[in-house]
Amino acid sequence: MALICSCQDFHSMKLTTFVPFTKTHLVYSRVSMSSSFSSSSARSIASKEALPGNLEKSLGHAQKPQRSLSTVTHSMPPEKIELFKSLEDWVKTNVLIHLKPVEKCWQPQDFLPDPASDGFLEQVIELKERAKELPDDYFVVLVGDMITEEALPTYQSMLNTADGIKDESCSSPSPWAIWIRGWTAEENRHGDLLNKYLYLSGRVDMKQIEKTVQYLIGSGMDIRTENNPYLGVVYTSFQERATFISHGNTGRLAKHCGDNNLAQICGTIASDEKRHETAYTKIMKKLFEVDPDAAVIAFANMMQKKITMPAHFMYDGHDDDLFIHFSIVAQRLGVYTVIDYANILGFLVDKWNVEKLSQLSTEGRKAQDYVCRLGQKIRRLEERVPLRSEERPAIPFSWIFNKSVKL
Ligand SMILES: [Fe+2]
Ligand SMILES: [Fe+2]
Q1: Model confidence band, residue 20 (pLDDT cutoffs 50, 70, 90)
Q2: What residue numbers bound the domain in which 270 lies?
Q3: C-alpha 184 to ligand 2 mean position (Å)
């Protein structure tokens, strides 16, 4: 969806994308799907004792009855761990180069008023004035993006549960572990910068946002990567591109509204995401080279389960469907849409030369066929007639002081 709006157009924007209102149609669906591409190798069933409802809720655990939980763990055959060990030198030479030395990295303070400077208060006033030009629905999306970034502990945990690449000691010299720590350290600046910007903007209810972050980190995520690095790298490749797109789009919208400073903030974060996308897609490309059958089966497995967004357990203490509501607003503003989802899939199919893979097993060919056709199917869904503006309900968001925003 093209970002064609001016600031005044935000509330009357023509809706050209399919905005799903039934939960099962959402790209971000939390509904469980079984996968016919799951590896039949070593699995265990993760047992999970349910906490009493109130206790779960107060701790930030699953408060939503429809929540599905992964049951498959350690699905990569143990002998493949050796393959990941054998790639360590390759990672050192080819992947670690995509981390930037700290001294060459931007830091959040580069984009924010300096509290030690004499002009600090004036700079904050200017920032707040610019923020007044941005509409409420824009802030809903920016807050959702920031909260997603702030749940970084969950993402580092996910990578450190992946067999063959995890950081065994939290300071392991393995190139895989160096990558995970370096990537996390770079990502940490994203939530930090957006959080500080939003705090200074005066447009949002920081306490509600902080509660949402705490709930989210307490809830974790259920992305069904099964401690399997093939699945994990497909997931991160997809996600880095998704965040590159969404931060880029929030930047473009800020620019439309004349806030070049915020546009620069979003654009700078987007360029980090692009660099991370390059690294993860490169790892996956290598796996396609050395183990094409497992790679394409993993790709199909993740796509069949759908790429669940990492913040899908988002909760603010009020709205049980907060993530769905945030996602619908993001889609309506064109920040992240069903078409983006299909485009990312197509981008990865091309990047990994999936159509040209040969000498695959029967299961591999089936997986190849599935991912190559899936983009078309998703696009057909997008062609459904969207709801008219007057048919869309308005939902209060606690992040913006319970002001209502149209879905
Ligand atoms: Fe990020
Ligand atoms: Fe990222």
Answers
A1: very low
A2: 85-406
A3: 9
25 in a structural domain: no
CA of 71 to the centre of ligand 2 (A): 26
Q: Where are the alpha helices (DSSP H) in 45-174?
A: 53-59, 81-86, 88-94, 120-131, 136-150, 152-159
Say how many CA atoms lie within 13 Å of 382 toward its Cβ: 20
CB distance 6 to 134 below 8 Å: no
Tens-place pLDDT, residues 40-98 = 332 332 233 333 344 444 444 444 434 567 789 999 999 999 999 999 999 999 999 99
Domain CATH number, residue 130: 1.10.620.20
Residue 366 lies in a domain: yes
Name the DSSP class of 60.
T
The annotation places the binding site for Fe cation at 149, 187, 190, 240, 273, 276
User: Binding site: what residues are annotated?
Assistant: 149, 187, 190, 240, 273, 276
Nearest ligand to residue 189 Cα: 1
Q: Residue 392: inside a domain, yes or no? A: yes
Residue 141: pLDDT over 70: yes
Please identify every residue annotated as catalytic: 106, 149, 187, 190, 240, 243, 272-273, 276
Asked if the structure places residue 43 within a domain, the reply is no
Spacing, Cα 286 to ligand 2 middle (Å): 20
Q: Specify the pTM.
A: 0.86
